[in-house]
Design a protein that fits this description.
Largest sheet: 8 strands, mixed
Radius of gyration: 18 Å
Strand content: 25-35%
Number of helices: 4
């Protein structure tokens, strides 16, 4: 009986985390206005999530570089003078250890999203349809990593990039905070080239 209760609690916890991750992605789409991008006719979520480990590596490197002069920093932040670092390096190490075991790729599924209002498609399908004229050539596929929740579940890390037939949107790391039951972007990080 005890094993059965433990098994059920693992299932419920897993389902709860999946719902939180999907809410984060939905709120991200709403906040960045990715559902209806001006001058682009269609917007899609690419079904294969980007690397799960990148957001933590971005944040860790940006955190380590935060005291350097702006010209010497390897990462830029928006807002530029970012003095808000809610997650410290100790928690990053714990989170990295936690996800170390999760090496499988992750795929977004339409049935799991209640209010995303954006079709989910493979990258190849997007590019093929744009090249064949089935969708406008300016259609964009949004590539979003599976969010990583902070220990207290008040913050989430994810990476975002985009792809379209003639190019793409460079990858950025996004730190979001849960405010009034909605996930809000508080900082975006870009790698300086």
């Amino acid at each position: 009986m005890k094993k059965y209760i433990i098994f059920l609690s693992i299932i419920f916890t897993s389902c709860s985390i999946v719902k939180i991750e999907e809410q984060i992605v939905t709120d991200f789409f709403i906040e960045k206005k990715l559902r209806n991008i001006p001058h682009l006719n269609q917007s899609f979520l690419i079904n294969e999530a980007s690397s799960y480990k990148n957001p933590l590596e971005y944040y860790e490197k940006a955190f380590e570089n935060k005291s350097l002069d702006i010209g010497d920093q390897k990462f830029s932040t928006v807002p530029q003078k970012n003095n808000y670092w809610p997650i410290n390096l100790d928690e990053i190490k714990v989170l990295k250890h936690k996800i170390k075991k999760d090496s499988l790729g992750y795929y977004w599924k339409t049935k799991n999203f209640k209010s995303l209002e954006v079709p989910i498609i493979t990258k190849k399908e997007l590019l093929d349809k744009a090249k064949n004229g089935q969708i406008p050539i300016g259609s964009i596929g949004h590539i979003i990593s599976k969010p990583i929740l902070s220990i207290n579940k008040k913050y989430a890390f994810l990476t975002y990039s985009g792809v379209f037939c003639t190019g793409g949107i460079p990858e950025e790391m996004v730190l979001m905070e849960l405010k009034n039951k909605n996930w809000k972007i508080i900082t975006r990080f870009y790698m300086n080239l």
